[in-house]
Amino acid sequence: MKMPKEKPVYKRVLLKLSGESLLGDQSFGIDVKAAQSIAQEIKELSALGVQVAIMIGAGNIFRGIKGHQVGIDRVSADYMGMLATIMNGIALQDIMNKEGISVRLVSAIEVRAVAEPFIGRKVIRYLEEGKVVIFSSGIGSPYFTTDTAAAMRALEIDAEVILKATKVDGVYSSDPVIDKNAKRYKKIKYLDVLKKNLKIMDATAVSLCKDNGLAIIVFNIRKRGNIKKVVLGMDVGTKIY
What we know:
The protein is of the alpha/beta class. The chain has helices at residues 32-47, 64-69, 74-98, 120-128, 146-156, 190-195, 203-212, 226-231, and strands spanning 12-17, 51-56, 103-107, 116-117, 132-136, 161-166, 187-188, 215-220, 238-240. It has a single domain, classed as Acetylglutamate kinase-like (Carbamate kinase).
């Protein structure tokens, strides 16, 4: 008996992938097995006809705000963080290519030897052709986090949702590591995230999504299969709306 084809609820998504997602069990750098697992999940989405763009972070290599805290000029530290995202993008592109995925690496900072510049219409065409697009270097400007960059790029490419990949199961009323009674929200409004100061994304990113009606789904990337479950509309993580 032929099984019915799984039907995704989203056609075009932007996956916000932190640098920590590539750490695996390491404390620094890139765990190839962790990256391969993510690549395989993205391949499954492509097989369902889902168009996938990725905004990559760099917390596994260098975080701009941390650099500033130890004495590096904020602008310089932020540019260092952007360059680190390009390194992650190159690695993820290579790993995804080896999984048989057609990928384009795009950078907001000009580094033509390794990545294309961001041109919105070209990126949309790549997605329509079934290619995965990796965004690196945020939006190319200091003082903007990759969360805010993810929101901006998602709007520019007409993504239907931002999938915020984290190491927790969703948005909680308090830190679930510290508070055993912390409650996970299945759904929560943008305003409540801002009012309660729930630091799952920075306030600028949440406000930008709120003003433009762009939903965010926060979920645990470390549980294999969660990306697909989210795209299929299953009860995974927390939806911010």
